[in-house]
Design goal:
Number of strands: 11
Distance between the termini: 88 Å
Shape: globular
Largest sheet: 5 strands, mixed
Oligomer: single chain
CATH topology: L,D-transpeptidase catalytic domain-like
Number of helices: 3
Order of helices and strands: HHEEEEEEEEEEHE
Structural class: alpha+beta
CATH class: Mainly Beta
CATH superfamily: L,D-transpeptidase catalytic domain-like
Length: 221
Amino acid sequence: MSPPSAALRPRYGRIAAFAGAVVITATAVLAGSGVLPGGGAPSYASSSGGAGPSGRAEPRRDGGSAISLAAATGSAGSLPAEERTAPTPVPAGSGEGRRVVFDMTDQRVWLVRTDGSVQRSYLVSGSVYDNLEPGSYEVYSRSAHATGIDESGTMRFMVRFAHGDRAAIGFHDIPVDEGRLVQSRAELGTPQSHGCIRQWRPDARSLWRFAPLGTPVVVTV
């Protein structure tokens, strides 16, 4: 005869381990998607981009802290949807057809399709200086990777469309200096750079795909 079965008992060790893994995973996803706050004060890092293909930008101007690159960029699973409905209309008088529109007052970018519909719209950080005139431009240079002047930082998805006094002006992701982003995602929507237009990395990647050489760029106020 078989011995009687032992009474079933909960396996508390396994339950605790499973709960811990769920909490860690949820925290990582929320942090990557920008739901959880990131630390760091405004650093007013430069991002003027390089003259021509070199992609060199102005150096960082202060020693302000910045947030962790890993916490800010998130993982592939936490990236925003590729399509977003524009929360505000495309600025009037911004032209027609396929184009990128940047409004300096709203600190916002729109990726506009040929039929006038909006593929994506999001907040950015433009320059703290008055170095960009409203008007019509076009993409003339692109660099998947760019380096700041004096090795002050790196950036990705650089799309240049204008020429500043010292260097090119373009769109790129938030620069990274010594492994940390020079500003937080929460600071997008306010001027932070000394030349270019900074974007959250998933947005920068979308503009990179949307805007090959020759793409019209319209700057409004």
